[in-house]
Amino acid sequence: MANDNKKMISGKELQEKYLRKDMMPHIFCDGCGLGNVIDYTLRAVDRVGLDMDRTVFLSGIGCSSRIPGYIEADALHTTHGRALAFATGVKMSEPDLNVIVFTGDGDCIGIGGNHFIHAARRNLNMTVIVVNNFIYGMTGGQVAPTTPEKDKATTAPYGNIEPPFDISKMAISSGASYVAKWPVFRPHQPISSISEGLENNGFSLIELLSPCPTAYGRRNRYRQLQDLWEFYEKNTILVEDYEKIQKFGSEEEKERADKMIKIGVLHEEEREPLEERYYRLLKELEE
Amino acid sequence: MNLEKVKKVLGPKKQFIHGDTAVCYGALLAGCNFYGGYPITPASEIAEMMASLIPKVGGVNIQMEDELASIAAVIGASWTGAKAMTATSGPGFSLMQENIGFAYMTETPLVLANVQRSGPSTGQPTLGAEGDVMQSRYGSHGDYQAIALSPNTIQETVDLTIKAFNLSEKYRSPVFVMISADIGHMREKVVIPDEIELFERKKPDVPPEEYVPFGEGNYGNIKVPEFAAFGTGYHTYVTGLTHNEYGFPATDDQEDHDRLVRRQIEKITDDREELTDIEERNIEDADVVLLSYGLASRSALGAMSKGRDQGKKIGYLRLKTLWPFPNDPVKELSKKVDKIVVVEMNTGQLYHKVKEFADCEVVLSSKIGGEVHTPDEILKEV
């Protein structure tokens, strides 16, 4: 478990220690949650004490995939949807490197869906941070596989008629050994889960619900950033509370809970990661 | 990787093997220690052979979920310093094109063996063709310079696969080994070479703060930057976006894009002469030259002999390096002869390139459908 008692690093120290100052200013819009995502990830990295000389950040294409550019470390900013396939090559070839992947909802479960389920199945020891903003943000607000039903997008001008994907559920059923989901509006739970993900010996997925006021919020019910934060507050339920309601709640409470997004640490198991299996095989062949 | 250990795994010095196996032998002899693949006829035997052999020399084999992933894994492995390769055939080669472009843009060494079958689409999976020649040059979007080699025997498949690794390391570039399915599945004798000269990508010899990951480098004669593998403390940002020489995005800057892309092309074309690899026969007195490569060149050679027996002054020129194209040798040749017949197993691909540089008559001898030319079919065009 991550050491929660360790003194939290200050924002200024965090910047000094981990960010590439030459890359500033960043490209993210006002109100975007990606600043929070970077902050939480680096705090977790610091808490766990990863060696930045031995850590590789990978990403695909989209707003969240620009994150590795701001971090002072090796990074591979790859093609749309394929980051996990590149990461598989990195981890299999050099298993001692720490691998952290940033991806967005479209990158991860849209164009990259196949790589995502197979990376989870292989349970390689890497931490994947999926920033889910319910929309294709960088391209200007097209409907995503995660866009809630009836919500509007530039390519769903009359409202989305497709059911959305649950990324975390998909990760669990595909074989990920640690899965957590949190909105970004509170820092402690995401930092704690990213830390746990980094310490988990296997495929860790942390899905962060993150506001995109520019491409998603303003076309929907969330004119102000505050409206989006309120949406997360009102429409998410801790998985422990959800389970209690399912056991002891009234029909009405159950129905209400079913419509909410379950958050928390959703799955944990111990399972040998693929790279360990492979290198064990190599040793056996040598004997 | 230890050469003696590889030789021990490969077995007897002389063997009777097919071209797909020859690709694996060449790769392992060159120090390949990462194979990422996906099954496809007629290249599956490469994946099978690598799965069997590469663990025995301490390397990594992984079968990925599709071809997009296999080339991606190869690029990822290459950035950890591995000598990495994949193999495929037409449909898989098409799927790989985007990430091949990524490898050009990020100057990632890798080797890709394309065991060609008839296309387009699923085509004739088990029959040979050489229809991916232009795809190997222009398959990905944007401007770049490809390196592609085309062996015509099983021994040469071993030798040119070793060479492909050396070139990929030297120029920090993808290098294609283009064989036809017939070469892939045909058996001939090979002799495993005793000594192998290997080229390894240069590492930076400056501290991280002075390292320029995407500049002209310090090789001297070629514009290839040194390569700092992930995990060595250099903190390299590698992106498919247009980047400046420090690797940082420069997507709005005309000059940065121009400088980057032109250097990436010139690092190879500046060495065109060095990269040219041709075999000539009977050029001195020839009126007509059969210009060919790969499998079709074996028929061209037969046609030359048959034509000579009939008293025709026929010469033969074979390209072992398809890309970069040997502009000057073709131009020089065209000044000496009346006619060049381009013999290829497609509807005319390298034919157009020959026409671009030849000052004489150029005609095409084309054959598709999975059968090779007969010498008589070629002689009809002489």
Question: What would a concise description of this structure say?
Answer:
Chain A is an alpha/beta fold.
Descriptive overview:
- The complex is a heterodimer of chains A (287) and B (382).
- Chain A is an alpha/beta fold.
- Chain A has one domain: Rossmann fold (3-Layer(aba) Sandwich), CATH 3.40.50.
- Chain A has 11 helices and 10 strands.
- An 8-stranded mixed β-sheet of chain A has the order 2-1-3-4-8-7-10-9, sandwiched between helices.
- In chain A, α2 crosses α7.
- The model of chain A has no long low-confidence stretch (mean pLDDT 96).
- Chain B has 382 residues and is of the alpha/beta class.
- Chain B has 2 domains: 189 residues, 3-Layer(aba) Sandwich (Rossmann fold); 101 residues, Rossmann fold, CATH 3.40.50.920.
- Helix content of chain B is 38%, strand content 21%.
- Chain B is built from 14 helices and 16 strands.
- In chain B, the strands form 3 sheets. In chain B, strands 2, 3, 4, 5, 6, 7, 8 and 14 form an 8-stranded mixed β-sheet that branches. In chain B, strands 11-13-12-15-16 form a 5-stranded mixed β-sheet, with helices on both faces. Chain B has a two-stranded antiparallel sheet with strand order 1-9.
- In chain B, β12, α11 and β13 form a beta-alpha-beta unit.
- In chain B, α2 packs across α7 and α4 packs parallel to α5.
- The radius of gyration of chain B is 21 Å and the shape is globular.
- The termini of chain B are far apart.
- The mean pLDDT of chain B is 97.
- β2 of chain A pairs parallel with β10 of chain B, so a sheet runs across the interface.
Strand content of chain B: 15-25%
Order of helices and strands of chain B: HEHEHEHEHEEHEHEHEEHHEEHEEHEHEH
Query: Biggest interface: chains and residue counts?
Result: A-B, 39 and 44 residues
**CATH superfamily descriptor of chain A:** Thiamin diphosphate (ThDP)-binding fold, Pyr/PP domains
Q: What is the CA-CA span between the terminal residues of chain A?
A: 36 Å
What profile does the largest beta sheet of chain A have? 8 strands, mixed
Instruction: Give the topology string of chain A: H per helix, E per strand.
Output: HHEEHEHHEEEHEHEHEHHEH
Radius of gyration of chain B: 21 Å
